Amino acid sequence: MTQVIYDGTYEGWLTAVFEIYELKFDDVVFAKSEVSNALFFSDRYIVITDLQKAKRVLKGLKDKLSREGFANIYKAFLSDIDKIDETLFQYVKYIFSSAVNIEDDLSNSAVLGVRKAAYVTGRESHRMKAFVRFKLTKDNLYYAVVEPDCDVLPLIEKHFKIRYADQRWLIYDTKRKYGIYYDLENTTSVQLEFNANSNSSQFLAEISDDNEEFFQNLWRQFFKSVNIESRKNTKLHIQHMPKRYWKNLIEKIPDMKK
Questions:
Q1: In this protein, which residues make up the domain named DUF4130 (predicted)?
Q2: Helices 109-131 & 153-163 angle (0-180, nearest 10)
Q3: pLDDT per residue over 93-151, tens digit each?
Q4: What are phi and psi of 115, to 5 degrees?
Q5: Helix/strand/coil (H/E/C) assignment for every residue in the chain
Q6: Can you tell me the distance from the alpha carbon of 14 to that of 29, in angstroms, rounded to the nearest whole number?
């Protein structure tokens, strides 16, 4: 068994796929940057990301799949589901070994696994488009903190670039320690350390625009006013807005002390 170690990026994984075929490895497991102790005695192969090799794998997949099926590979990779890189590799092997399109063969465990993972990522990215809440800093930067189950920032980037084209903004993923920044022209991926107490009144007072507290409280009042208590359905509400999102939603944070 060979442990294939790559940098954790989609391009790195695609490069690994190319080199596994190139070197004719029979039995492989994947590791992201770090060597797994569980496979201490296995052979190890370190992949150096090569965009040209990655593009060749992508071209081969694109020629064998529908547009949706091709997109689902990337969505599945972003799901962060345990061992999804290995499931995807089994999926790719099945694709390249078949003379016909296999993406609807749900009797195959890899096909089903990829379909489910892509669905999870798609649902999470859809929710993020609705649940991102921006706050304004003193230097006119709108920032939002999110903690999605999946790595959805690459999928929601275009949506926010179009919707907030006239504002500088940053959406930061606390789980993965990176964000996407829009400077009125382009979006870039940024690595930074972010204050974990970003919802505290002290932190907001230090970085926020002078009117930010007023507008946040105004939004909370509006949110309360449009909710009819007699029609409250907590179970349905949580179904559409799971509690794991609440800590980053302005309307769910208690009014800040004056």
A1: 84-251
A2: 30
A3: 999 999 999 999 999 999 999 999 999 999 999 988 988 888 888 778 888 888 899 99
A4: -60, -45
A5: CEEEEECCCHHHHHHHHHHHHHHCCCCEEEEECCCCHHHCCCEEEECCCCHHHHHHHHHHHHHHCCHHHHHHHHHHHCCCCCCHHHHHHHHHHHHHHCCCCCCCCCCCHHHHHHHHHHHHHHHHHHHHHHHCCCEEECCCCEEEEECCCCCCHHHHHHHHHHHCCCCCEEEEECCCCEEEEECCCCEEEEECCCCCCCCCHHHHHHHECCCHHHHHHHHHHHHHHCCCHHHCCHHHHHHHCCHHHHHHCHHHCCCCCC
A6: 14
Of 65-69, 155-159, 172-176, 221-225, give the lowest mean pLDDT range: 221-225
pTM of the model as a whole: 0.77
Amino acid identity, residue 110?
A
Considering only the C-alpha atoms of the chain, give the largest distance between any 2 of them, rounded to a whole number of Å: 67
Sequence-separated (6 or more) residues with CB below 8 Å from residue 211: 136
Could you count the other beta carbons within 10 Å of the beta carbon of residue 166?
Answer: 5
Return the structure tokens found at 42: 């296995």
Residues 213 and 254 sit within 8 Å (Cβ to Cβ): no
